[in-house]
Amino acid sequence: MLLSLEPRGQQSRAMLWLSPMLAAVLTLASGSLLFMALGQDPLITLHTLLIDPVSDLYGVSELLVKATPILLCALGLAVAYRARIWNIGAEGQLLIGALAGSAVAVHVLEVQSRWALALVLAVGMLGGALWAGLTAWLRTRFNANEILTSIMLNYVALNLLLYGVHGPLKDPAGFNFPESAMFSDALRLPLLFEDGRAHAGAWFALLALVAVWVLLQRSFLGFQIKVLGLDGRAAASVGFREKRLVWLVLLLSGGLAGLAGVCEVTGPIGQLVPQVSPGYGYAAITVAFLGRLHPVGIVFASALMALLYLGGESAQMSLNLPQAITQLFQGMMLFFLLASDVLILYRPRLNLRWARRRAAVVTAGAA
Amino acid sequence: MDIDLLSNVFYAMVRTGTPLLLVALGELVCEKTGVLNLGQEGMMLFGAVVGFIAAYSTGNLWLGVLMAMLAGVLLSSLFALVALAFNANQVATGLALTIFGVGLSTFVGAAWVGKPLNGFEPIALPWLSELPVVGRMLFGQDLLVYLSFALFALVAWVLLKSRLGLIIQAVGENPDAASAMGLPVLRVRTLAVLLGGAMAGLAGSYLSLAYTPMWAENMSAGRGWIALALVVFASWRVARLLLGAYLFGLASILHLVAQGVGLNIPSNLLAMLPYVATIVVLVLLSRDGIRTRLYAPVSLGQPWQPGH
Q1: Which residues of A touch B42 (CB under 8 A)?
Q2: Which of B307, B53, B16, B76 has its CA nearest to residue B200?
Q3: With a cut of 0.85, is the ipTM above it?
Q4: Which of B243, B228, B236 is nearest to B278 (CA)?
């Protein structure tokens, strides 16, 4: 073959970090090809997608609004994936967080204290954690595959949310729209800036970032999590308790996703609606991998993903392209990342001798 | 329950179970060779949208089916490239395939949402379809359902009775030994993945051309994932797959039955049933870890390269 792969024998540290960037570049390149095929000028489209949304201060604050839930979810997923617990359920955990928080919020609408908001946030976080706890219970008690159970729970959560907004949580004075009552000002997260919608949830994300960094990079617990992920048998043989770790990573990632959900309803949205999340929980999977399951990498990946969300909106408004561009780019990026990762362990080799021999055969055949 | 209602429930059960059966058959073969492809949902959706667009533009339903299968093959070849040739983690690659397929289908299908199409009509076989209770279920279906019966028989025969079935099993159980015997492990796996793609595409076209002849975002609603659970449910045995697919079909139409007999349960709660049923079934079957390990192909999900 012209191009062959040759094992490096060890991981290439440079490629470990270059490969996400290579993936981003490849995604943009194939995106440009796609835009050309659609008859759009690729440069203008990329500009609309990636530059326009953040060209003013309002755009930057919107970036923060979108990055907050993605970052919260992705940090939790990274911890779970480090332990090789494939939690695909961040979306459902986020929705349950929003639902549980709202269920409390509509009962304390009259309370003017900040404690009411704290209660709502705590319940939302707890809701997300318990929802992920279901997956942990099914996995540790019944040995049920966590990928499938967490995915199924996403669909269950979505239906529970829909039941909530169509049933018990529907605003009685809301003209029968499937929405809860608007939350009172005391129940809304404070804004970061006077303009825009950026809210205090960003501080929670920052806090979570530090906490996850300390957990993964500096604590014995984080070490146990990583050992479990690298080699379950080794972890068991040195006495790390697998079940406890499974519970821990799932409760943690569920809690963070639940917090993301409740921050959405108490922050930018201000009430419970059927479309709490445009797929943040799924986007977080891509983000976690793109950030190499490392807290710092995930910050950059979250910002990029948030930008893609904003870009999708602006591409729809000004170029009339489907908003699904965001998901399409998400998928492409994850694919390109996994494909580029081959270069971490293998070195591509241009096989010139093969090409020459091949050329000789072809010329001989022609003659 | 009167005979007519029962006959209708059975009929709808098979119709609803058919897409699950088609995807699960493809995934079963794939997993038998040791490859876990979590991209079923994405391939199914892409097949559904491509099949719909092709059928709508040309007016030819079978061309739609063909294009849907090609669409599935196309996506699965991406999986084969990254997971088999580049040795990437199969779980992550499958997830990527689903995310990509969902996005791609939504993107491609944006202009086609809600357009009407005359899909496959049921073709009742004379006399046979009038048998009580099972007549309509077995002989009053559309052509794609009959095709699914045939494909089931074919896959069952290949896996259980043919030399090819033994090759598939050898590759899945012990790729090193299979390779030492001179079997082309990677080629067998690649072909199985492509077959899985074709079956997922076919299942997608069943959704958009027969079951509900139209295109809607995310119209597969998790069926690709349920099919993955079905393979576990079936303990990788093909006959149980058929049973499982129809049981899940039944669970998905229970809300219609409930309405039929006048139960008043909110529809959103009933819509959870197939997903909850999937979890319950997974729990019942996985509880006994030894059994799962006994039946699962030994090399399932593990990357393999020749000469390692």
Answers
A1: 331
A2: B76
A3: yes
A4: B228
Tell me which amino acid residue A326 is: T
Whether B307 is covered by a domain: the verdict is: no
Interface probe with A: pick from B215, B282, B293, most Cβ of A within 10 Å: B282
Residue appearing with tokens 């088609």: B22
Q: Is residue B237 part of a domain?
A: yes
Check if B229 contacts A (Cβ < 8 Å). yes
CA distance A161 to chain B (A): 9
Under an 8 A CB cutoff, do B275 and A142 touch?
Answer: no
* Packing angle of the helix pair A280-290, A57-82 (nearest 10 deg): 70
Name all domains of chain A by residue range, CATH numbers in brackets: 1-40+322-367 (no CATH), 66-320 (1.10.3470)
For A212-229, what is the mean pLDDT? 91
Extract the tokens encoding A303. Answer: 């910002």
Structure tokens at B17: 């179970």
Q: Which helix (H) or strand (E) holds B215?
A: none
Nearest-Cα distance to chain B for A190, in Å, is 34
DSSP secondary structure letter of residue A291: T
Which of B272, B278, B302 would best serve as a mutation to test chain A binding (most A beta carbons within 10 A)?
A: B272
φ and ψ at A154, to 5 degrees? -60, -45
Structural domain of B133: 3-116+128-295
CA B26 to chain centroid, in Å, comes to: 6
pLDDT tens for each residue of B121-161: 888 788 887 787 777 778 878 888 999 999 999 999 999 99
CATH number of the CATH domain containing B73: 1.10.3470
